[in-house]
Amino acid sequence: MEIHHSRFIIISAPSGSGKTTLVHALMDRYPYFEFSISATTRSPRSYEINGHHYHFMTVPEFKDRIENEEFIEYEEVYEGRYYGTLKSEIKRIHQAGKTPLLDIDVVGGINVKEKFQDKALSIFIQTPSLDELERRLRKRGSDQEEEIQKRLKKAAFEMTFKKYFDATVINDDLEAATDALAKVVLPFLNKEPKKGV
Ligand code: 5GP
After folding, report:
1. Which residue's alpha carbon is at the smallest distance from atom 9 of ligand 1?
2. Which pTM value belongs to this model?
3. Closest ligand 1 atom, CA of 36?
4. Chunked in runs of 10, what are the mean pLDDT values of the chain (197 residues)?
5. How close is the Cα of 83 to the center of ligand 1, in Å?
6. If you take atom 21 of ligand 1, which residue's CA is the nearest one?
7. Residue in 115, 85, 114, 116 with CA at minimum distance from that of residue 101
C-alpha cells in the first residue's frame, strides 16, 4: 500500500473519551501509522514516560521552541499548560515511511485542518454521553475533583464543534469503533484501496 508522505491524521476528542485506547487499537491492527509525541508543560502522570507519552518540558523551554518556530501547531489547552506538535516529530515519522497520528485538542484540531487542508484528515472521537465520560474520568483515577470538573466543562463545550471535523467516530464498543476509524483513515492513505486492505 502506498503511503502519502506529507499527510497526517488529526484525532481530537474530549479527554477521557477513550481516544488513546482506540488509537492504539488502530495501530496494533495496521502498520501504517505512528503516534506523534507532543510537547507539553504539564507534569507527567505516574505512569507516563518522558519521550514516550509526551516530551515534558518547562514553560520557558516551550516558549523558546515557539520562538524558534519548532512547532507546526501549539495551544494553551488549559491555563498555563501548553501542548504542541513539533515539526521534528512529523519529519521523523514521515521518514520512517509512516503516517503521523496527531492527538490534538478540539480547537487545535480545527485550526490545523484549516491550515493544512487536504494534507490532513480530521477525526472527532465522541463518547456515548457526558455521564459516560464522567464515569471514565473517575475510573482513570489520575485526576483531582477540580481537574475532572474542568475537563467535563471543556468536554461539553467541545461536543459543539464536531461538525467542523471531516468525520466522527463514536467510541462505544472498542472493536466497532476501531472498524469505523479504519474505514475513514485507510481511504485517506490510498484513494484507491486495494482488495484485502
Ligand atoms: P492530557 O493532559 O489529558 O494528556 O491532554 C489534554 C488535552 O491536550 C487533550 O485534549 C489532548 O488532545 C491535547 N493535546 C495533546 N497534545 C497536543 C498537541 O500537541 N497540541 C494540541 N493543540 N493539543 C494537544
Report:
1. 105
2. 0.85
3. 19
4. 73 81 92 95 96 97 98 91 96 95 92 95 89 85 83 86 94 92 92 40
5. 6
6. 104
7. 85
Complete DSSP assignment for the chain? ----TT-EEEEE--TTSSHHHHHHHHHHH-TTEEE---EE-SPPPTT--BTTTBEE--HHHHHHHHHTT-EEEEEEEETTEEEEEEHHHHHHHHHTT-EEEEE--HHHHHHHHHHHGGGEEEEEEE-S-HHHHHHHHHHH--S-HHHHHHHHHHHHHHHTTGGGSSEEEE-SSHHHHHHHHHHHHHHHH-SSPPTT-
Atom of ligand 1 nearest to the CA of 107: 22
Laid out side by side, the sheet with 55-56 consists of 55-56, 39-40, 81-86, 71-78
- 99 ligand 1 Cβ < 6 A: no
